[in-house]
Amino acid sequence: MDIENYIPHLSIDCVIFGFHGEQLKVLLPKVKRLDTWTLPGGYVLKSEDLEEAAQRILEERTGLKDIYLEQFYTFGKAKRSTGEMMKKMLLVNDFEIDESSWIFQRFVSIGYYALVDFSKVVTKTGVYDEFCEWYDIHQLPNLAFDHAEIIQKALETLRYMLDDKLVGLNLLPETFTMKELQILYQTILDKPLRRDNFQRKILSMGILERIEKKFTGAAHKAPYLYKFIK
Amino acid sequence: MDIENYIPHLSIDCVIFGFHGEQLKVLLPKVKRLDTWTLPGGYVLKSEDLEEAAQRILEERTGLKDIYLEQFYTFGKAKRSTGEMMKKMLLVNDFEIDESSWIFQRFVSIGYYALVDFSKVVTKTGVYDEFCEWYDIHQLPNLAFDHAEIIQKALETLRYMLDDKLVGLNLLPETFTMKELQILYQTILDKPLRRDNFQRKILSMGILERIEKKFTGAAHKAPYLYKFIK
DNA sequence: ACAAAAGTGTTCCGCTTACACCCATGT
DNA sequence: ACATGGGTGTAAGCGGAACACTTTTGT
Predict the structure, then answer these.
(1) Which chain B residues are Cβ-neighbours of A47 within 8 angstroms?
(2) Within a domain: B38
(3) pLDDT tens figures, B72-125
(4) Which segments within chain B are labelled E, that is strand?
(5) Number of folded domains in chain B?
(6) A46 C-beta less than 7 Å away from strand C
(7) Do A23 and A60 reside in the same domain of the chain?
(8) Are residues B78 and B114 in the same domain?
(9) Which end of chain A is more exposed for a tag (fewer CB within 10 A), N or C?
(10) Does residue B220 lie within 7 Å of nucleic acid chain D, judged by its CB?
(11) How far is A105 from chain B (nearest CA, A)?
């Protein structure tokens, strides 16, 4: 990684959403030797489209290609990132520091959110990271810079777009039950939905294909499995 | 203007919307000695918030402060702006060119749209401009770079947000008739709306205050004037 | 038989749409 | 009186919300 190949003062931060155990989660790497987490992010090569850069960063963290991505906002307050935090993160890991580098100056960061199938992700730990883990959206760890704010904005956008963008297609496995889809929606919106009306609303969209019954061994009628129509 | 004070490879482009003569218009400066127009834009000072930069750029062009502004997208395809066009624009105006400057390299541009009261704007001509004029959204001149695409995206965002953001408040004068507001909505959405239902819908929002009758001298009932409630 | 959860028919309500009529004003 | 356009009453239609009933499965 030669710092000269990147556009200075510009970064991309990704909010990677996954869904597991009835919780909406985000993938966050922990900074080595600090009680601090960050958003998975990176810089943009001078020859690279923004979206390419975001895809590259995501692949580094999740091992997945062609991830569903949406740019949602660009964060550019002059004081949003302090060089102090950046230096601390590098010092504590015995990296060399060139004080004059733009790395320690002001940053503009372009926010993308990604929707991934939790079960397909193999999290990878970056060079600056101690580990990279999923966190429930309601129990986030200590976040650096304005990253908590960025997650909040990503979540708001996700909610706002929920009816337009086929969110379920990207957060759920190939097949799923109506209940799973409902819980996903409830989790994102953070409010309960009526089972009967939810079922009808989704089916009336004509985006789901009913597959077969799923026998869970539970003491009740087996639910159908559904998948999204291509 | 010392180029060193700005964040390199980053620019802000503003789509300034105004409303006049039943048309939605955008304010576009013409490049001197070329059959080319651009969006009013500029660079971001290293010490400046993005939004501050956008406000500064807007004040330079319109003379207005505290303009209604929304960031809507960041454009970052690697080939979206060619140094060739930039050089042509400077050469034709006898500016000196430093080939190595980031000015001629790749740009990431943050798009803001602004809503202004047409009647209050006193357009100002920038140093690179021949003049700065309003253009009907349906009859745009020859635009440089990807600026036509940026305007399109701004317009889509404006339409999408029309019911949430009090667009009329910013595009219309202090007082206006219901018909004027309706024509504004129709123009933005590019489709006819029913007079009776539009009136009721807007009034039911409880955002308008009825002032007095406006005697136009026309051969019909005088319409009320309205203004937005603070 | 019963409990639990899935699936669906039906009703009610509110908002949008459409059609209608009345009102104010100038010719 | 009449034409023109503003303001509003009212009914039809549509989609969402709420309720209830049926279906399927394991204990």
Answers:
(1) 78, 106
(2) yes
(3) 999 999 999 888 888 998 888 888 888 889 989 999 999 999 999 999 999 888
(4) 6-20, 23-31, 41-45, 68-75, 108-115, 129-136, 208-213, 224-228
(5) 2
(6) no
(7) yes
(8) yes
(9) C
(10) yes
(11) 9
